[in-house]
Amino acid sequence: MICRGDLSDAQWQRLAPLLPPPGGRGGRWADHRRVIT
């Protein structure tokens, strides 16, 4: 079920490549999709 503000799979597929890859320095990264939603 999609709630108000949730991204559809099609919207997420367009947005995901624009975000930096997880990992690197610092603490553990949260899942991008959960943070954006």
Shape: flat
Major beta sheet, specifics? none
Helicity, as a percent range: 25-40%
Order of helices and strands: HH
Distance between the termini: 13 Å
Figure out the total of helices: 2
Q: Could you walk me through the main structural features you see in this protein, from its secondary elements to its overall organization?
A:
This protein has 37 residues and is mostly helical. Helices cover 32% and strands 0% of the residues. The protein is built from 2 helices and no strands. The longest helix is centred in the first third of the chain and has 7 residues. The radius of gyration is 11 Å and the shape is flat. It starts with 8 loop residues before the first helix and ends with a helix. This is Transposase.
